[in-house]
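Researcher: Batch entry, complex prediction.
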Amino acid sequence: MIEVLFIPPGATVQDLGRDGFWSQGLGRAGAMDPLAHRIANMALGNDADAATVEIALTPARLLFPQGGAFALAGAACGARLAGRPLPPVWAGMAKAGEVLDLGPMTQGARVYLALPGGIDVPVVLGSRSTQLREAFGGHEGRFLVAGDTLRARDPAAEPAARDFSLTMPLLHDAGGGIVLRALPSTEHGDFSESARRAFWSTGYTVTQQSNRQGYRLDGETLDRPASGELRSHGIGPGVVQVPGGGQPIVQLADSATMGGYPKIAAIIEPDLWRIGQARPGDVLHFRRVDLSEAAQAARDQQAWLDDLQMRIDDFRNRQKGWA
Amino acid sequence: MASPSLSMIGSRAVLFHAPCPFDLAHQQRFWAIADHAAQWEGVREAVPGMTNVTLLLKDVPPDLDHLSCDLTALWNSGIRKEVEGRLLPIDIAYDGPHLAEVAELTGLAIDEVVRLHSAPDYTVYAVGSHAGYCYLGGLNPRLETPRRKVPLPRLPGGSLSVAGLQTGVSASMGPSGWNTIGSTGTRFFDPARQPAALLAPGDRIRFNPVRVQA
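Model: Structure tokens for the complex:
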């Protein structure tokens, strides 16, 4: 169990999202960085889909009144447990009464906190994710606030790997930007040649108008000579829309299910964690890929997760041997 | 006429659309395509938009040829799905903040706006944007208005709005660039209800004016 002592707005309970309700207009919700969410769960021995706490702004303070296992993954924020520094990805035990302090984020935008068995909130429409617009799911359908208490579903469980830590894949490239692989989308061919060249070759900065629903970007203006309004059509996480002003919007975890703006590209799913960790001021570079590269990227990420699972199992077995 | 097209809107999501008039007969073709495609191996969900269909796939498709071929064949077959939907009467207070503006923009008296807007039965063409929101067809062209230059950041759920040739009732609080002319207490989406969304494509709405206040 954890008690929230202090938390800025923006923290929610999330799992891997809500499937099967797109036809009723309900977006998926789910972790903005599904990779960090999965890793926090794996380090505790949880199912990948167990609910975690997604923390979008720090500093935050959390109390473990009875102690217990927990795991952290995602943004680096100088986490300290009872004053002892923890690495950005870590699993272990808190003693009764210990306080977890999350400091300013130095890299990335979201920290994931897992408890054994997952956060104990009800499953609504097939998921424990918070649906912010519709105000249900997660913890009372809302952002966490000071005074909230969250319980673990399996409070007595030991972490899969005690004092386990690992290094995440790099978020930024050597130039300091964030590279996102993307497929051309429906209206890609309607944009001018110079707009297409700018989109695939220049950087787009994440603006302050960015949240779980989507990010507004700022960069070279993208003009589309074709005029006329589009009829409303399906959109989803990763799609890059360009409204009349010519500055792109990326739809993310809390994306609407339908929209009307022209779409220049769609970020591939295995790279959505990167944009989920991008923060205002970060520069995004879109790299064009085709379907076979997109399929390969999905296989590569699964292989990386499978390998990580083996390393965690190995770490735990060695720990047991030494005990 | 240009040919149908299939494009990626995510690495496991495709959008199929075909250039066609915007009317019920054509929309019924997309309902039929969605019904068929939902049964296909590798398709998780098939959702009609406004004269288009979105397919959510299980995996990244190796190419679009196969899907494109199957969807185009369905389109060319002309198959339609006629829905004997239910008719839902909804009590509406025509009391929205932009009612007087819509009257001015259309050159109609306020009572005339209300009369024209509440006259037809509207068909739900598609459900989406936010949970339970219905895209309605059947607005009288005399009520056509432009979208607002400055959107409202927090329009409450249950707000009745018009823009272009569309009208609809928001199901939860959110931003809106449409002209809001009324309100209702009807809940269009309730996670505790089965199904959660009140209406489905093919259902119809009849607005019953209970109050007019501009």
